Amino acid sequence: MSPNKRYTVVVAGCGKRGMHHAAEFFKNPRFQLVGVCDIDQARVDAAAKQFGNPETSLDAASLLKKTRPDIFCFCTLPNLRLEMIRLGVESGVKLIAYEKPIATSTNEALEIMKLVRAANVKTVVSHQHRYGEHYKKVKEIVASGAIGRVHTVYGTATGWMLHMLTHLIEYMRWFNDYAEAEWVVGQASGKGKFADNHPSPDYVAGFIQYSNGVRGIVESGDGAPDVPEVEAWWRKCRIGAQGTEGFAEVLTGGGWRAITRDSKGVISGPGNMDYAHDMPPYIQEMADWLDDPEKVHPCNGERAYKGFEIMMALCRSASQRGKVKLPLGPGEPELEELARALPD
Q1: How many whole angstroms separate alpha carbon 3 and alpha carbon 113?
Q2: Between 88 and which of 37, 51, 72, 283 could a Cys-Cys bridge form, CB atoms 3.0 to 4.6 Å apart?
Q3: Which residues contact 126 (CB under 8 A, 6 or more apart)?
Q4: 229, 251 in Cβ contact below 8 A?
């Protein structure tokens, strides 16, 4: 595609995240926002007024049929993923952008990947924290070899699983050069958050064995370690890597810090989760990928699927009380199985 082409976009879901996406598509000259959709008329009207009065609808299917966009971006609750993906594929879009987690079960995720692969539709998933300068700094330190041979990657979050765990896993995989996961062992506790619109155990933890010998350690939810340096509990995420000669880690709401072979003590720097900073490159790189198939978006759906698979393997392990090997095949829906396995 010509780098001067404008790609047409429909955004479904006009809540907080939908508006973040719509705003960036609207501002970027590589895109034309041709439609917005939500089940709430007031939200649709407000979005349309803000973004140049594109087509509006309370029904995504009819809006897609009318506008036939290049890109379908949806920011809806997790239980609608497969339905929205199917609508995008059937309407002939080139790229679908959507929120994590990509599904609520392995069966659903496998069906999603089957659909988009068969239709050759590109997918991008909102693991946009990686654009933060503090995240990039940790990746730079780890990749430089300054902490020696990496033996452990880790991530903790006080937010619960379907909100936060694929974020942790994605950045751990990034720091570990996307080595394949071979097996996991997981444990979980608490059933309160299964009633949430991002249904999850209250707490989940586990170990991940990667093919390059690196071990991953994750914790998410009520019981995960506090990050007292960060005030806002939703940003109390800590992701890092330990090596033979030091460590480097990022705090989502509190910068980065490291000890390297040459640092002579702790070094650190600023950084914070910031949609105004992180969303523009996340959106721009969708145009770059559509322009040139070689410029694969770093938040592409194939990577997101690998991270989701690890999360579901942890759930299976907690339910089945044993080591779970990857890749996963279809099986009992993991959240239902886990909810039954956990004590009341």
Answers
A1: 28
A2: 72
A3: 17, 75, 97, 98, 99, 100, 282, 299
A4: yes
CA distance 311 to 126: 16
Place of tokens 């330990």: 242
Mean pLDDT calculated for residue range 159-168: 97
Which domains can be identified in the chain, with CATH numbers?
Answer: 7-128+277-300 (3.40.50.720), 130-273+309-325 (3.30.360.10)
Cβ within 8 Å of residue 330, ≥6 positions away: 106, 107, 110
Q: What's the pLDDT score for residue 4?
A: 77
The residue behind tokens 């770093």 is: 298
pTM: 0.97
The CA distance from 303 to 124, in Å, is: 9
Written as one string, the DSSP assignment of 260-280 is -TTSSS-EEE-----HHHHHH
Q: Please write the tens of the pLDDT for every residue from 78-88.
A: 999 999 999 99
Mean pLDDT of 2-14: 91
**Is pLDDT of 73 > 80?**
yes
Note the pLDDT tens digit of each residue in 62-71: 999 999 999 9
Cα separation, 158 vs 244, whole angstroms = 28
